[in-house]
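note to self: the first set is below, dont mix up w the second
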Amino acid sequence: MLAVAGTIMLKSATIPALSSSSAASTLLQQIASNHSKGIAKVVLKRGKTQLFKDGCPMVYSGAVDRILGRPPPRTGDMVLVADGMEKPIGWGFYNSVSMFCVRLMQLEEEAAGDPDCALNVEKLLETRLGRAIQLRKNLGLPSASTNAYRLVNSEGDRLSGLIVDIFGDLAVVASSAAWVEKYKPEIKNCINRLEGINYISWRPSAEILKEEGLDLSDSREMHPPIPSGMVKVMENQISYSISLEGQKTGFYADQRENRQFISTVSDGQRVLDMYCYTGGFALNAVVGGATDVIGVDSSSPALELANQNIVLNNLDPNRVSFRRNDAADFLKDAASRNELWDIVIMDPPKLAPRRKVLQNASGMYRSLNSLAMRVVKKGGLLMTCSCSGAMTQSGTFLTTLQAAATMAGRKITVVRQTGAACDHPIDPSYPEGAYLSNVLLRVL
């Protein structure tokens, strides 16, 4: 196992800088004309320009009028994005098959203020990564008590399609855009220069990349290999074993602040953690003074790690246990026996991966939460979550929870509403980046 805590910094590197002498209105065009391979131009339809000047990072194919360039650009290539008069408004990465025709990286005005990054992938990566590091440093990450956090959050850190999670001295890269795969060597080189990082795990998001025109289902990489296949991290002074074969990047750092909140309200309480995975909420409840904690999950490998985490933190096994069971079956059985808990946590997997399945997913959220409400003591708390972007962005989660309460014959009030932890910034011009809903309810 590997464990390390410390400040992440970017080692100095020499990257050629571009001249800043060009006029702002023609800077990108001048740089593009001097580019050895030539730069194609994606011209927007009339009336579409302002949306992207205002900051929207995704140029949808429906906003494109024509593409200029011979030969035409290929997926992953840098392109200029221009208004109807063919004047560049910015540049980004092209995709010939995705609904996201271009992922904008820098606007013309930004290029004028920071010309070194204009049409320069390595310099852009270095600059954006440096800003991401500074933001986390300002947020107190990493710290002596936490060395598991998100360093790059896609559009929120202006690197659309790129996610980087830090687990001690391991950086886990989740790729969901063709340009990220094309520029893998440059990205890995930049991450390799981070102080304190000794290992990189590259994990393509296979299903999303299929929509980008790539088939990378069996292309996970680990450099150099970690013999045990396990990493030890710390979050809020609680230690966790992470399997590099686990879900997503291996650990859900987005719930860090919500897990810590549970520790503040668990003293003397009986707690049920549904979909507990490796025991994050359950362990925080025990550390917070809960008298009896049960974690339930259907994954045997996850529960093996959860039990390891009990030992890792020297917790009393008489106060916490983990059970392998289907969530609905467990809750129905508990309700039939009138078994009740002071606090119930519901953190199911993504039930609505696409907007087109939202209606069916809403029914599943309603049914599961109705079952959960039936096993909460009167006046107790239910922390319920949705990590489905389609649900969060629809704004209907609270309506679904109210319907669940009606189904259960219970009355609810909202005590607290949050999303992902602060190291998961969201670009307001791309609200689709918001995916996590966390609602704390009082159940009467």
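second set (the one i keep forgetting abt)
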Amino acid sequence: MPSCNALRETLGFLNKESFLCLLTKLIGESKYVQNNPPELIPEEDRVVKHVLDSLLPYSTTTGGGPLVVNHVSYFPCRGNLIVEYPGTVPDKILSFVGMHMDVVTANPNDWEFDPFSLSIDGDKLRGRGTTDCLGHVALVTELMRTLGEKKPQLKSSVVAVFIANEENSAITGVGVDALVKDGLLDKLKEGPLFWIDTADKQPCIGTGGMIPWKLHVTGKLFHSGLAHKAINSLELAMEALKEIQSRFYKDFPPHPKEEVYGFATPSTMKPTQWSYPGGGINQIPAECTISGDVRLTPFYNVKDVMQKLQEYVDDINENIHQLDTRGPVSRYTLPDENLRGSLTIIFEEAMSGVACNLDSRGFHVLCKATEEAVGHVKPYSITGSLPLIRELQEEGFDVQTAGYGLMATYHAKNEYCLLSDMCQGYDVFVKIISDLEE
């Protein structure tokens, strides 16, 4: 077996010319892999084609090389790609997973440059998907191509899993969830799984759960000059939400582990949107809807929170006459008319957060490689949400997360990444492989 230094010398540094050539092709497909159904259904196989063009010359099937390539599709034009560089020791494995081949939408009219073609401005690589996540697709493809070309003798198998349909978790059975269900990733449980879809070159050790909610409030419409005959849905909504938030923060306070993981904020429950049917300024509206989300650190259970929120609403409905009012004629019941205001809470698809295992070898190897390649290591946590990884963790995978785009441009207009960051990302990958050989 080669020494770690020899292996690093064999795998070298990122081939910038090859990387940029591939990334140019991938960003050229970004228009066709926007994920916003029902209008925009991505065709991830457009990206798969370019990845295969890079890797098949080194595959067991067409190039006489070492790479084992498996193109797995559950829907037409929406493939996943599993690529393995076999090692010599059974059950010794590491994997890079999560490089997704779909992107969020981009409106060219809002951008300062064409989002659907790669443009280069010094160190900046600009276009939709450069950070999230076609840049990572190109980066890991280059890693696997180099393994296939250089053929170092490794004890560990190295597996890359390029996935479909990360940007829309409401649709299932297309991407990594289907691969796990079919057992195609089972052997990856034998070693660390590095989910490559975060940013800023540091280990992301914690993410937040998300519970989107809508609070629909019903009152009674009436003329504003006769407020005593109305049930003001806006006032009811504001007071009810205040009470719900107060109970939430009492039941789900800052958790001691949040400091260990470095979360910038604790769990939060807050409104972000407000809607009502409209009408004149002199009308008290009969109904309105407040929408928002819960961002939950991974030390609390999403289902427990949803159950509690429902309990709060049920209790407020039952005791609505005890809720604080606003002014001498503000009220939420009209006994003479046998009318009561009411609340209904509706939850959209929830997502659980994840806390990575800080005792695992995968975490320590990622930190060591990051410190050597980047110059420092500072793991971080955010209450932003990443789909899919909690499910992998619950299935028994040792999930660690990292990424080499820029958090500031994630899902943003004028998205870009830095070529220098991608070069350091490649170096991190090489050092991970080397360290796990020891």
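remember for set 2: The chain has two domains: 4-206+354-437, 209-347.
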